[in-house]
Task: structure prediction
Amino acid sequence: MVTVQRDFTGNCLLSIEYATENSAHIDNFYCPGVNLWRDVFTQNQLDILIGREVGEKFLLEDEYQLCPYDPTLRKHLMHRNWAPPKGLVPRPEPRQGRWYPKGYLTNVAGVFPQTTEPMRLVDVNDEWITADLNHPLAGRDLRIYLQIVEMSPGRKERGERCSDWISEASENGPGMQLFPEEGEIDFAESGAMERLSQSDDTYFYKQPRLVDHVDAQAREHLYQFCSSIIAKEMRVLDLMSSVQSHLPPCRKLTGLGMNEAELQANPSLTDYLVHDLNLQPQLPYHESSYDAVCCHLSFEYLLYPSIVLAECARVLKENGVLLISFSNRWFPEKVTKIWQMLHDFERLGYVMKHVSEYYTDIRTFSYRNWPRPYNDPHFFKVQTSDPLYIVTGINRKG
Result:
């Protein structure tokens, strides 16, 4: 068995865990080419690392804080300080609880038009904009886990590059899904549910698309995650289903989708129904019929997400599981406007807000920065795998 030494290099998986009173979150970040002798590790972290076995997962930091929360970074500004880059169509309007690049502000010390770090607008009224420029995870206690995927002896140069993996894994995203401690999040964009193509969805989905919607690595993450939730004896409803369900074998798997040829080609389904949730968001199933409801890689197309999730709660048994997944790929003709205006992690918050109306024990998961498989048709355009984001909740009946 290979044990890690100071001069080893290899690949690792970094997991950042944090929680609020009503939710829990795990962000998984793949770290390629880790150099123990060059990258940023504290002596205490190195002491924990050295001697570990390849494949082992262990706690690297407990109650770790990226940075303290700084009240002075909470800025009360006039509306004239709101200055998104010219040429953005539509022009972003400041909305309470939402995240934007800091570069959207002008005449703020330390902020430049090129500054892309996120800020949250915690209050927006007719006179003022209050912007919180703190890191989304500032002041929060984090648990940092590390898993050694593979390691080999010998120092490998990377052109003097030195990585701080915890900082890289936590920048520009994690924490943006959390609800603000005060006020609500305003997702009511003008025309939020507009789409590029307003034609009947039946015509758009009439042609079968027997294709993969994310790459093989992201599909493997989704399948393995679902396998940890879905048991063989469960009755499962696969919403907006297609040729793949990304689920392990179960007692009953009902597919509800838009194209019959795609549903027929899905080998996992025990039965299916062609049904347009944007035309009729009510589900044609009895109350408490299912142990789990899944909606994979399709939530961004829903025009009535709250109604659909209420229907999911109706057909779920008490303590039944809701599982929603998405990536950053979609059909541009049918994705909603609001979805396109949100950061990936802010989309987690958007889904969470809808889920929180009917479900408890809300959890989010992300998988980012894995290498894209070499045989993927998009490998020469994008070398990293499609990111995967997941929200789960438990049905609260009564």
Notes: The first helix runs from residue 43 to 49.
